[in-house]
Every structure is written in structure tokens, then in C-alpha cells.
Amino acid sequence: MDALAAMQQRRSARVFLKKPVSRALVEEVLACAGLAPSAINLQPWEYVITYGEEKERLTRRIIQAHGELKVSCGPGTASPLPERYANRSRGASQGLKPHIAALGSDFNRFIEEGSCSFYGAPIAIIVVIDKLFPHLRYLDVGLSVAYLLLAAEAKGLATCPIGLVTAYSDEIADVLSIPKEKEILLAIALGYADEKSPINIFKTKREPLTEIISWYE
Ligand SMILES: Cc1cc2nc3c(=O)[nH]c(=O)nc-3n(C[C@H](O)[C@H](O)[C@H](O)COP(=O)(O)O)c2cc1C
Asked: What percent of the chain has pLDDT over 90?
């Protein structure tokens, strides 16, 4: 699969098969994440990968913390959002709602509880940066994450970036012994998508180019 096809096909999956992913395949995808460009080649990204019993232990701890705190959106999301941004977000949730309702679950509960359990994916990846870096370097990590998502797509794997769980960074750091010098930026669910689930088939829309670019000549 070429890069353009991976970009066009990729979507976030929220229903995963129980099928395991081989360590060799995970390493191939992570090697691609490491190919991203970064300012003066600092490569400030770090990935903590959990699977099996360790992933289950992490999930139990996040679910417990969520039961106590009940965060409904990940840190860094302004609320209320200006209308033009709120519309984009509404578009995504309206499209998913009927498919989630068909499972007998409401949208918020499905997203929150699903995020906390990495949507049942066999692999949960925690994306970390050393706190010594300024916020501009988070951009480099974002580029690497994009490479990761696209490489996974090209390898027939599915992903869902999960920001919500960073509300439980203290718990994640504790379970995975992530030192306090590191900041947890994102989690990524990785596995094989249930291709038949309408939740996974739904594709979010994007703004027309006129909304996101300005030309000057
Ligand atoms: C930084 C970031 C955080 C996200 N956090 C969550 C999350 O906590 N839960 C979730 O279900 N999806 C989450 N997503 C997935 C977005 O909802 C999704 O990317 C967006 O709706 C566009 O859909 P697509 O990925 O299918 O193209 C996140 C995506 C990004 C990039």
C-alpha cells in the first residue's frame, strides 16, 4: 500500500478483534514511527508498549480511576469550543451515534469506557516525551505518531489515538513505572479491526480546503 492510500483509508477503529499482533509486526510499525523527521534529529518521542496481562493491569487501573474521577474529555480540550470547531466535533459524534446506540450503549459512555479499555485492542501504546523539551517539540512527536498510524494501516492493522486516558497519567505512570521526568501525551490502541462493525466502517468528514488554507500571491 502506498502512503497516499494509507492516508485516504485510515480511520480510527473502536471495535477490535481478540486476534493477537506479533511482536515483530509491532516492531515494524514502531520502526516506521521512528523514521519521522524531528528538529535537529532529536527524535524526542518514546513509546511504552503493553500487551497481555500488563495491558489488562493497566486497563483495570484506568477504569478504577475513571470510576472515581469520571473525566468526559481528555485534558487540553477547551470547553465550550468556538462554533466552527464544535461543528466539526458534532459531525463526528452524530455519525457514530446510531451505530453505538445499536449496541445498546450511549455515545459518551461508549467513548469514555471504550477509551479507558483501549477499545479491547490487544496492544496499548503510551506515547511519552521527556519534560525537558519545550512544547514545540510535541510537534515532532505528533509527526512520529502520524507515521505510526499510517504504517499500521499499511500493514493491515488498525489504530485509535486515545487522549482521554492522559487524564489518568499518574495511574499510568505508576503501573508502567514511567519516571516523573516524562510526560504522557497520548495512548494508541493497536490491533486488528472488526471490519464488519458499522462503528469502524463510519468515516469522519473533513473540511474543504478553502477552510484550512489561505493563498497569498
Ligand atoms: C490527539 C488525539 C486524541 C484522541 N482521543 C480520542 C479518545 O480519547 N477517544 C476516542 O475514541 N478517539 C479519540 N481520538 C480519535 C478522534 O476522535 C478521531 O481521530 C477523529 O474523530 C477523526 O476520525 P478518524 O481518526 O477516524 O479519521 C483522538 C485523536 C487524536 C488525534
From this structure: 83
